[in-house]
Amino acid sequence: MRRSRLGWQAGVLCLLVFAAAMAGGARSQPPASSPQAPPAAPIPDERVEVPPPPFTDGIYPCSSCHAGMPINRARRDLTEFHTDIVLKHDEQHRWCLDCHDATNRDQLHLASGAPVSFDESYMLCGQCHGEKLRDWRAGVHGRRTGEWNGHKTYLLCAHCHNPHQPRFKAITPMPAPARPTRPGQ
Fold first, then answer.
1. Is residue 141 within 8 Å of residue 132, measured between CB atoms?
2. Which of 19, 31, 66, 159 is 20 to 30 Å from the Cα of 97, by its Cα?
């Protein structure tokens, strides 16, 4: 009888200590009506290791063809070169020179006009797709290889997505696999 009473008292004491700890923790939190602390400053963009972009053979460096050409900023169908490129990436609002640099065709540019290399194209994509960039950096979107807590190599967005048509093409659904049979059945 005495043991069960001690066990019960110990349980109540533990519950009280837990409740006091929770109440103390709650007091250290700012009241709901007080302003919250500003979010932490974003981590500055750091260059990550990536393999070379997946250029089509013979098209890079772009300046080998574009060096002497006048800059034509007009939105239009391409009829002489790059006719295989069909823009299906916010095509109502986008044009080639929104991403490709007009004066140096061997690089891209950010919305600010700052140049960015094809090796850093993730910065360009991340301007509109910030949540994907965050997930890519964390290793939960795209492919990252390397050590758990050390050197890593990332694939660029363009290794999996065509930047001009980024959606994956639909895959024909297949029937479910057949359930294996156990021996003797």
1. yes
2. 159
Q: What is the CA angle 55-61-62, rounded to 5?
A: 95
The β-bridge partners of 165 are 162
Q: In which element (H, E) is residue 5 found?
A: helix 2-28
Q: Do residues 132 and 126 touch, judged by C-beta distance below 8 A?
A: yes
pTM exceeds cut of 0.85: no
Structure-token match 């994509």, residue found: 125
Query: Residue 121, Cβ neighbours under 10 Å: how many?
Result: 19
CB 108 within 8 A of CB 100: yes
pLDDT digits (tens, 9 = 90+) for 140-178: 999 888 888 888 899 999 999 989 888 877 788 889 999
